[in-house]
């Protein structure tokens, strides 16, 4: 029957991840399907569990096309996500599906469906696909059930977006407007190179900026190959790699090492990461890159240890010196080489703008992106706040962490995702005022959301609890957004990633936000200011 609701489940490309996460997906699917039945509708699964694989996810673009060929083209379609997923497995079918589409995610740190759904939603937004979206902790709350009823009745689910305001509603302070405008004009005149080591990581269609939109800002892509990065790693001497490790040891950074490379971080894995750090700087210098992004996860994962340690070092001003191959010139000396995790080009453009605004203002220029991973309410300074868990496997600079290098530890990346190991650059983000932002593509245009927040300190026991229900090997930021609720961010945010940068205090952060917004505007982006306490 064409009015029977069809449920599909998208997953990872990696078999180990799909098998590990499958039971969580089964539980969420059953709960969602039961809610649909209680609302009076028939529902069925759109594809079977494949016994020999040990899971029932759509696990490739090829399989996704097979699934969509068998689906009624006008059926109401629910994409249920309890895990991370690769959006390109589904995007082709969603482009041409004629029935209403609903994405649904669990609210869990351990099983990050909300992260996967944010990416899928952003990819559909870029593609111009109409969809509704919902999320829930247990799928029995009024928010979820009311939204589900509306969608089953043929309505598009609308969410509260009252926190979003066009930049044109505000008067940007003259100092900020002049700085942002001037830097944007400089960028358009002098231009910049974005180095991309293999485009399109993990199916993140939303993370690819069309060239014609990027070129209008003054930024141009240098498409590089991770095979070249691997080859360059082989040219880095043992002495150079050891020199990077010794520099980190002298800074007080800790490495949680062991002897079993299958499950533990080894010294050899760390040296491989040090080689990658050196190689990345040299290739970036060769091509004149102002910033770079390494895909890693579906490129080098079978050849090298994780890129995360290298990414965090690249984003830091104070980092191990690397010299050019044939002379004593120190590469990118005394400044970050901005790195955008998972070759998220939207985050890369954002990082470049942040770097230039913060440098011009005399602020510490470190910037990074985090996953919008999870969140719960917690009492902060006697007041209940919704505290987000921003958490990412790599790219966090030590300057953002409590204690810097001495407060950081490198732990082996989970074998489920990183077969050849390698360590993270783990720590707790320091308390302070931050500016958050996200560039995205919508309606064929580059847009940017920007807002204010603060990173807060939580008790050590609560930090550990949050680590244990997410990914304890990764750096974490406890974040309170100003004037943006949990559901407002989920409804509006067009990525699984969010860009963050610190400012010396609240007034300085407001000035930086205004200047960054002005630079975005002059670059041709459509800018929205989200939330409150931004000073405009």
Task: Describe the protein in words.
This protein is of the alpha/beta class and 536 residues long. It has two domains: 5-152, Rossmann fold, CATH 3.40.50.10940; 169-530, L-fucose/L-arabinose isomerase, C-terminal (L-fucose Isomerase, Chain A, domain 3, Alpha-Beta Barrel). It is built from 15 helices and 18 strands. α12 (345-361) crosses α15 (506-522).
Please name the CATH topology of the largest domain.
Answer: L-fucose Isomerase, Chain A, domain 3
Number of beta-strand segments:
18
CATH superfamily of the largest domain: L-fucose/L-arabinose isomerase, C-terminal
Coarse shape: globular
Between the first and last Cα atoms, what is the distance in angstroms?
Answer: 53 Å
Specify the biggest β-sheet. Answer: 6 strands, antiparallel, barrel
Portion of residues in helices?
A: 25-40%
The fraction of residues in strands falls at 15-25%
Q: Show unreliable segments.
A: none
Architecture of the largest domain, CATH level 2? Alpha-Beta Barrel
Tell me the count of domains: 2
Gyration radius over CA: 23 Å
Can you list the strand order of the major beta sheet? 11-12-16-15-14-17
The pLDDT mean sits at 96
CATH class of the largest domain: Alpha Beta
Structural class: alpha/beta
Number of helices: 15
């Amino acid at each position: 029957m064409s009015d029977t609701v069809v449920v599909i489940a998208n997953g990872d490309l990696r078999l180990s991840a799909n098998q590990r996460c499958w039971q969580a997906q089964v539980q969420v699917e059953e709960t969602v399907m039961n809610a649909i039945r209680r609302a009076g509708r028939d529902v069925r699964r759109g594809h079977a569990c494949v016994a020999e694989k040990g899971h029932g996810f759509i696990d490739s673009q090829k399989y996704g096309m097979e699934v969509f060929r068998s689906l009624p083209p006008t059926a109401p379609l629910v994409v249920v996500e309890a895990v991370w997923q690769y959006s390109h497995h589904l995007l082709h079918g969603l482009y041409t599906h004629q029935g209403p589409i609903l994405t649904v995610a669990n609210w869990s740190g351990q099983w990050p469906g909300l992260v996967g759904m944010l990416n899928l939603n952003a990819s559909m937004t870029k593609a111009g696909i109409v969809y509704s979206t919902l999320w829930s902790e247990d799928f029995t709350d009024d928010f979820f059930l009311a939204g589900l009823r509306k969608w089953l009745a043929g309505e598009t689910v609308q969410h509260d977006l009252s926190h979003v305001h066009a930049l044109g509603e505000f008067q940007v302070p003259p100092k900020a407007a002049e700085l942002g405008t001037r830097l944007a004009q400089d960028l358009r005149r002098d231009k910049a190179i974005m180095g991309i080591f293999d485009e399109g990581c993990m199916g993140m269609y939303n993370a690819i900026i069309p060239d014609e939109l990027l070129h209008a800002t003054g930024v141009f892509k240098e498409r590089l190959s991770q095979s070249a990065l691997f080859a360059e790693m082989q040219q880095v001497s043992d002495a150079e790699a050891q020199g990077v490790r010794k520099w980190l040891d002298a800074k007080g950074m800790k490495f949680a090492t062991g002897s079993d490379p299958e499950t533990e971080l080894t010294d050899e894995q760390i040296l491989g990461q040090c080689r990658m750090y050196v190689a990345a700087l040299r290739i970036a210098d060769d091509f004149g890159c102002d910033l770079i992004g390494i895909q890693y996860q579906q490129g080098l994962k079978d050849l090298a240890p994780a890129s995360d340690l290298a990414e965090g070092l690249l984003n830091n001003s104070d980092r191990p010196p690397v010299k050019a191959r044939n002379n004593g010139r120190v590469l990118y000396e005394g400044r970050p080489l901005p790195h955008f995790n998972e070759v998220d080009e939207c985050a890369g453009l954002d990082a470049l703008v942040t770097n230039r605004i913060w440098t011009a203002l005399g602020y510490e220029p470190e910037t990074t992106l985090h996953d919008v991973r999870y969140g719960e309410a917690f009492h902060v300074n006697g007041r209940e706040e919704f505290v987000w868990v921003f958490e990412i496997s790599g790219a966090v600079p030590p300057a953002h962490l409590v204690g810097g290098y001495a407060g950081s530890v490198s732990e082996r990346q989970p074998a489920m995702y990183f077969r050849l190991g390698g360590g993270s650059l783990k720590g707790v983000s320091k308390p302070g005022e931050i500016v958050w932002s996200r560039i995205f593509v919508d309606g064929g245009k580059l847009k940017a959301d920007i807002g204010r927040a603060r990173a807060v300190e939580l008790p050590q026991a609560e930090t550990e609890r949050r680590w244990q229900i997410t990914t304890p090997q990764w750096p974490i930021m406890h974040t309170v957004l100003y004037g943006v609720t949990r559901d407002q961010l989920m409804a509006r945010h067009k990525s699984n990633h969010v860009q963050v940068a610190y400012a010396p205090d609240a007034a300085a952060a407001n000035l930086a936000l205004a200047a960054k917004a002005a630079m975005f505007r002059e670059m041709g982006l459509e800018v929205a200011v989200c939330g409150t306490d931004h000073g405009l």
